[in-house]
Amino acid sequence: MTITKCGEFIQKGGFFVIPILLASLFCMTRFWKLFFYLRKIRTKKTRDNFILLKQYISKEEYEKSTELIKHMSSFLNNIFHPAWNAFLNGSDEMEEILTYCYEREIKMLKGQQQPIAVVAKLSCLLGFMGTVAGMIQIFDVISVRGSVVPQELAGGISEALISTLTGLCVAAISWVAYYIIKGQMDRTVYILEDMVNEYNEVIKKRKNCTEKHRDVE
Question: What is the value of pTM for the model shown?
């Protein structure tokens, strides 16, 4: 029964309802994927592993540090691992590498929220296009029949209103989803920035200590 009603709704709304509903499905899929991904980055386990990593580095347990970085999430691994390799190789560009990797990953992460905003804007446009298509249908009936009864115009009016309503509803939901993700994104970036700064300080301190021991020897 529900499937039948959905089919009738789509039929009454016209062609433009279909891409609007597909866009809403894409939006919700992207929303939940990002929502849980961002929460995974901010978990207590991630923070505990990071604290353990700093302890390993401070104690010069480099093998354990390397293994721990490898087993972090791919996002954190892409930030920490290149700088760690630079530290192990004694490179002076360690800080620049860390900054570059952090900015690259953050840029890619933020880019994943943009499709939700695109869906919100596109849904409105598709809804208004459905309105125009419905009005064209109405005027076609009037031009052919000359004199018409309201029932003959109902199809075009229904298409015009349903497609607009669907587009506006999807756009409203998409904007809500976008700002929820944006808030989660800002919070995650704030936490990551602190982690990167702490990581940079730890490996710089360890590097300076190593260089002092070499000078003494």
Answer: 0.80
